[in-house]
Amino acid sequence: MSAPITLTGRMANDPELKFTQTGKAIARFTVVTSRRRKNGDQWEDVDTTFWTCTAWDQFAEHVTENLRKGAAVVVSGQAFQSSWEKDGQKHSRIEVRVESAGLNLRWPPKTAERSSNGGTADDPWANGGTPDAPPF
Fold first, then answer.
1. How far, in Å, CA of 77 to CA of 59, rounded?
2. Is 30 domain-assigned?
3. Residue 95 belongs to what domain range?
4. Which helix (H) or strand (E) element contains residue 59?
């Protein structure tokens, strides 16, 4: 049985793309979630959880191409318990079969430095100038 779940966290690693024997793409990655709480004058992360996530088919390829370690993400899918036996020991963990994923723009990745008027420092249009044009 599975349950719907939405994770808001950070990519703990780059997605790893593999293919099954039948040629189906599968991407595996980990999303780390936590909440912040103030402890005196300091903020600390609590309830930190590492979620094993899998994406399938063409979606797996999109995830691998677009998500990177450290990126703030929102991942939605189905949580289920995976069980296996290794060396006579039974193991289990909760995994997420991902149905949708994307960058969380609440904490956007750092980009080129912005100039005072909102353009990027390397933007030729930023200060009313014109870009270098090739000679004709």
1. 13
2. yes
3. 2-103
4. helix 57-66
Q: Could you tell me if residue 17 is inside a domain?
A: yes
* 64 located within any domain: yes
φ/ψ bin of 68: left (φ > 0), alpha (ψ from -120 to 50), beta (otherwise): beta
pLDDT in tens, 62-108: 999 999 999 999 999 999 999 999 999 999 999 999 999 999 998 77
Rounded to whole angstroms, the Cα distance separating 109 from 72 reads 8
- Both tokens assigned to 30: 């980990």
**Contacts with 40 (C-beta within 8 Å, 6 or more apart), sequence order:** none
Structure token pair of residue 18: 């593999």
Q: Which CA distances in Å does 6 have to 51, 67, 75, 130?
A: 11, 17, 6, 45
Alpha carbons 83 and 17: distance in angstroms, whole number: 22
**Whole-model pTM?**
0.73
Structural element, H or E, at residue 100? strand 89-103
Strand 89-103 to 42-56 pairing = parallel
* Domain harbouring 40, CATH code: 2.40.50.140
